[in-house]
Amino acid sequence: MSNTTQTDPNAEAANGNEQTTVVGETNEELKAEWVDYRFDGEPKFTVEDLNVWYGDDHALHDISMDIPEKSVTALIGPSGCGKSTFLRCLNRMNDRIKVARVDGSVRLDGREIYQDGVDLVELRKRVGQVFQSPNPFPKSIRRNISYGPRKHGDVNTGLLARLTGRDDSEKEEKLVERSLKQAALWDEVKGRLDDNAIGLSGGQQQRLCIARALATDPEVILMDEPASALDPVATSKIEDLIVELSEDYTVVVVTHNMQQAARISDQTAVFLTGGYLVEYDDTDKIFENPESQRVEDYITGKFG
Amino acid sequence: MSTGNRFDALGEIDRETQLVGATSGLALLAVLVAFLVAAQYAVYPLVAFVAVVAYGWYAHQENTAAVLMFFTTASTIVVLGLITVYLFVKSIPAFETMGLDILLKTNQPLWERASNTYSLAPMIWGTLLTTAIAMAIAAPLGVAGALFISEIAPRWAREIIKPAVEMLAGIPSIVYGFLGWVVVTEYFYRELQLSNFSSLMVAGIMIGVMALPTVVSVAEDAIASVPGAMKDGSLALGASDWQTIKSVTFPAAFSGISAAVILGVGRAVGETMAATVILGHQQAFPDPLYDVWEGTETLTSLIASQYGIATGTQLSALFAAGVVLFVTVLALSIGSQFVEARMRRRLGGEQ
Amino acid sequence: MSLDTRTADTLVDDDSSALGYVAGAATVVSLLLAVAGVLTLFGVVGLTSTVAGFSVFELFGVGFAAVGVTLLGVGVASRAGVVETKPDVTAGALPMVVFGLVGLVVAGLVSSQTLGFSTLWPLFALLGGVGVAAATVLPPEDVGVTLPAGGLALLAGATFLAGLITPSWTWEPVAGSATYTGTFAVPILALFVGILVAWVGAEAYGGFGTRGRQLGAYLLVGANAVGMLSLLVVLVAYVVSRGFAPMTRGIQFGLFWEPLTWFYFPPIEEYVVINGPLVWFYWPFVMEGVALMNDVNGIFPAIVGTVWVVAGAVTFAIPLGVGAAVFLTEYAERGRFTQLVEISTNGLWSTPSIVYGLFGLAFLVPRLGNTTSLLSGMLVLGIMMLPLVVITSREALKSVPDDYRDASAALGVGKWETIKSVVLPAAMPGVITGVILGIGRIAGETAPILLVMVSDPFPSRATDVLAPEFSFISNFPFVHAQLLDTSALLQPTSALPYQLYAIITAGVGQRESFAWGTALVLLLVVLSFYAVGIGSRMYFRRKLDQ
Questions:
Q1: Which residues cross the membrane (chain B) (predicted)?
Q2: How far apart are CA A137 and CA A24, in angstroms?
């Protein structure tokens, strides 16, 4: 059972039977077995039969899952299992990759996001994202935070705005303060909001990116291994932050750190190599008593 | 410094290789000296050099190769140094005769053999005008073209337009000059009822078209070097593609884009044939100064049109024009490299 | 407010609105008018020629008036909430500057020229500029952009229709030596106004706001790209159209069944003759020089000169340049020295070619026979090429992964052996591409060879450098062998770009078709080097991607 991690996704998809012989589970059987997760309340996202190809590489196979609102959903799995690909489908950032092809349905609040005429700007306003490595803009901290609202026309400052009497400097100050406080960064940077954000430490940069995403007032925040590039202290700050955020926002977090998933998430989806969603349930259930033998092996560290 | 490097690079070498290195080095030096003093004798040390290197190659290839590589570097540097030295040395008589007036004299006579007066001021003014016209065309269109290629164009359009821009750069300047002379000059002469056939305007337009590909290629490199993660960050916040270009990509690449424009200015300043063919070669200021429909003279066209008839101080004044060009373009080039390095540092700092 | 009515579905945009059709039509018409402006500017279409019963000039008037009214209507409809748009609160800085400048120029011209205020006009110009800028930036975006753009189009249309500017109109500014005529001004105005209005039309098509601005910007940037592409096509096509006939004049060819060889065959005591097809081809323009007796004068000497000078320059530049690149990348420690070399090579690469010519004139010519010569030309062009070879070779060498070097070194292979058998082969595609592009550049270079290589503008014979000879002689060293005729290297030679220059300076008049033919051959030679260089680079990149 320890031989499945390093194989090529295509090869495994083709040889699924041979590689998962222990309990007689094939990937084909596994894919829809334990994913029928029930929860109270409305789903924020409804994903049905989602398939993604990168060129000839079939990166995600028939993913169907509902993501509940105002909670933390963790996506875990070994490298190359498609969890980041799945995340990028939720705000259509995969459109940026020329060879990517997406098939299936993703609905946000019941509205299909994969159809003609969807306004990607509007979608990404509602579904924010924080990336694996911090990517602040080479601008001041203040400008980084107010970037989204500026682009959406909610904040105007500068000479032109002052001349035409639409100066939003105060609004900007409040927004910056609120967002930085939400991201637990305010105390560290409040005296130097005009400094270039590139000068911040890695952990601070990542919290700045979270604050930046919050400032656009999204409904969903997608996080792609937000703490993987950070030291333990910064990581724990980010984790606390994620738990807090789930009171007001729907958070979807990709991580390959299982302890982290267990600490912060309400429900967990396990992807395994080849791009299959194998099991999706309450986090406690997944970590204490998973249905799938392969998920148990993965979680107990037998592979992956 | 260079010799230090050479031995650093070679490390420990045995006695015989040292001998090969030293002899061949001496022989090469002798070639240079002979060429400088009495060119016809340069061939003998050259033969000696070839013989020594051939032996070394046969006996100690590893080290001889290193020595040979060092010599190529050294000769490259020597050649480039010679250019600088000769240009400056030959221009000294003109500077001695004219003093600073060679750059600043603006009253008649400006360029006259009888009174041995040679002022480059009208040519500098002509170069300024043509360069300004050229850059008014090349800078905005070039930067827009670079944005299109690296950020906006779909893949198929990029595959067409990128080679096309490079081909545009490949069209020889004399062909541009010919087209400018036969077609464009003729057009303006007819349409605008000009009193003289040649004009700075046409030269500027043609030079602008020539500088365009330089601006596009260099600016495109700069824009493409902005990390994708930064653009993703902007898009994920709900900014549109154009907003991302305008507020993230363009500012981040700004240094590189200005380097592209600076290099374009360098190209425009140094462009020779189009100006030579199109202009009327009057070593005077246009009247009024901004009348771009007159065909006066630029620094480059001055050299190309007068080298054959010039002797003595006049020839030296042409070298002075060369020095002005050389220094200007070198300064622009170093400036653009400095600006580019700064951009690389700034973008690199975020990792 | 239109914003309040828009609640249904914010995710999905509806493109098929009435606004879309109207604004789209206005955009397309404006673009067509701009293109028509270019065509009339270059005389492809006459301004007074008729299309569908109207003269082109009248169509400009009607077209701009219609587009202007349409845009104004779109702005009003958007403000009144008749059509669904998402305008920003203000049009922003760029439209303000653009339309402010337009206002400045229009007000200045009208007050000084039409109304005749000889001293007060700067004041009016300033008022006009500030007024239009304020009208652009103060109202919400939909009105702010359509008002000045629609107004400008309407003004242009009205000016044409009212006959204020007609094809026969002339204006001679007091200062400057040009007289602006209607046949020049109308197309320029049409081009300029057409593009500005198309920009705003595209913004309106996108419903203003973020999407509208993106469409507007993409329209401008895309039009610029199309313009550049057309420029290349038009330039090349024009040279081909003018040069093809003179270049191919007098070509004769044929296929003949003729004796290829014959020999005496003893058994039949006869000569055996073997016949075969012989292709005979005569292309005077590229096979002849200029001579009195020629039916068709040609540029053979110039072609041969170009081939020799390029060959010489390459022989000089490649070993030196690649060697220096290898030393700098593989042997020298990265530091101040390499940095200095890098800065100076970059600087020399952008040094004007005429400066290289001056250097050759001062340094090489006196030492190489005291006359312009092929050898001087080779050396000067070689020196010109040197920085490029160093730069591209260094790029190529740097892009070879260190793993290769480490792997080879770990097997106990020496440094030079590693470079020779691993690094250089891996870097070869990059080096070759750089060299090919460099050849394209120097093959078309005129200024330096003008100073150091040429003398006869219309040579009849080509330089004959390749002259293999072998004979026994009576004195030491008793054999005389030569491959190259070195004295030919010290003779002046023509070259293609110089040939073109020589025709221009000799007065194009009678030789114009000769010049176009030369220009075409030069263009073909240089562009084929570029095509091969660019093609090989794309090929190697694609191979690398796989």
A1: 20-38, 43-60, 66-89, 123-149, 169-188, 200-219, 317-339
A2: 50
Domain assignment of residue C424, given as a range = 300-545
Residue A25 above 90 pLDDT? Answer: no
Q: Encode pLDDT of A248-267 as tens digits.
A: 899 999 988 888 999 999 99
**In a 10 Å sphere around its CB, with 0-12 CB exposed, 13-18 middle and 19+ buried, how is residue C451 labelled?**
buried
Positions of chain C with pLDDT under 70: 1-16, 174-176, 292, 466-486, 508-510, 544-546
User: Rounded to a whole number, what is the distance in Å from the CA of C157 to chain B's nearest CA?
Assistant: 23
What ipTM did this prediction achieve? 0.87
Number of domains, chain C: 3
User: Hey, are the CB atoms on B350 and A138 less than 8 Å from each other?
Assistant: yes
Q: Which residues of C touch B187 (CB under 8 A)?
A: 42-43
Both C371 and C231 in a single domain? no
Q: Does C324 contact B69 at a Cβ distance shorter than 8 Å?
A: yes
Q: Test C352 with B325 for CB contact under 8 angstroms.
A: yes
Is the predicted pLDDT of residue A29 greater than 60, yes or no? no
Write down the mean pLDDT value for chain A.
82
Q: Where are the domains of chain B?
A: 2-89, 111-348
Q: What is the pLDDT of residues B244-280, one digit of tens each?
A: 999 999 988 888 898 889 889 998 999 999 899 988 8
C414 and C502 in a single domain? The answer is yes
Record: contact A119-C93, CB cut-off 8 A: no
Q: What is the pLDDT of residues C430-464, one digit of tens each?
A: 888 888 888 888 888 888 988 888 877 777 777 77
Q: Do C62 and C11 share a structural domain?
A: yes
Q: Are residues C263 and C400 in the same domain?
A: no
For A91-122, b/e burial (b = at least 16 CB within 10 A) is bbbbeeeeebebebebbbeeeebeeeebbbbb
Judge if C209 and C321 occupy the same domain. Answer: no
Residue type, C394: R
Percentage of residues in chain C having pLDDT higher than 70:
91
- What amino acid is encoded at A111 in this protein? R
Residues 6+ apart with CB under 8 A from C372: C365, C451, C452, C453, C454, C455, C492
Domain contains C114: no
Q: Which tokens hold the place of A168?
A: 């939003």
- Domain A32-299 sits in which CATH superfamily? P-loop containing nucleotide triphosphate hydrolases (3.40.50.300)
Same domain, residue pair C352 and C491:
yes
Within 8 A by CB and 6+ apart from C293, the residues are none
**Helices C209-248/B121-147 angle, 10° precision:** 120
Characterize the bridge pairing of strands A250-254 and A72-76: parallel
Of A115, A122, A164, the CB nearest to C138: A164
d(CA A242, CA A210): 10
Note the pLDDT tens digit of each residue in B130-155: 999 999 999 999 999 999 999 999 88
Which of B7, B28, B72, B182 would best serve as a mutation to test chain C binding (most C beta carbons within 10 A)? B72
Q: Which helix (H) or strand (E) holds A66?
A: strand A57-68
Tell whether C336 and C417 lie within a shared domain.
Answer: yes
pLDDT of residue C499: 87
Radius of gyration in angstroms for the set of CA atoms belonging to chain B, rounded to a whole number: 26
DSSP state at residue B39: G
Helix (H) or strand (E) segment spanning residue C112: none
Left if phi > 0, otherwise alpha if psi is -120 to 50, otherwise beta: which for A272?
beta
Task: For B111-348, give the CATH class.
Answer: mainly alpha
